[in-house]
Amino acid sequence: SSDVCSSDLIGLVDDVLSVSIGIILCRGAKAVSVAEEIQDKVKSAVQNMLGLTVAKVNVTICGVDLSEKE
User: Fold this and answer.
1) Are 30 and 61 in contact (CB under 8 A)?
2) Which of 1, 18, 22, 34 could hold 62 in an S-S bridge, CB 3.0 to 4.6 Å?
3) Helices and strands in the chain, H and E counts
4) How many CB atoms lie within 10 A of CB 38?
5) Rounded CA gap, 7 and 5, in Å?
6) What are the CA-CA distances from residue 56 to residues 15, 26, 41, 68 (Å)?
7) Which helix (H) or strand (E) covers residue 43, if one does?
8) What's this model's pTM, rounded to 2 decimal places?
């Protein structure tokens, strides 16, 4: 079983990529908004750099950083 919180995962089947990444949210961050923004940026960056279709970007929230912001 692969744990996305210990390493990011990339799958490639017939020139179509799927990407799974784990993130640590900052305290007070809106999880859905952050995850959607990451999905959009990762998909766009990978497609532009590699010229491959990204079928999906899975974002897993692995934890929350509760430290105080400066």
Assistant:
1) no
2) 22
3) 1, 3
4) 14
5) 6
6) 13, 24, 12, 33
7) helix 31-50
8) 0.80
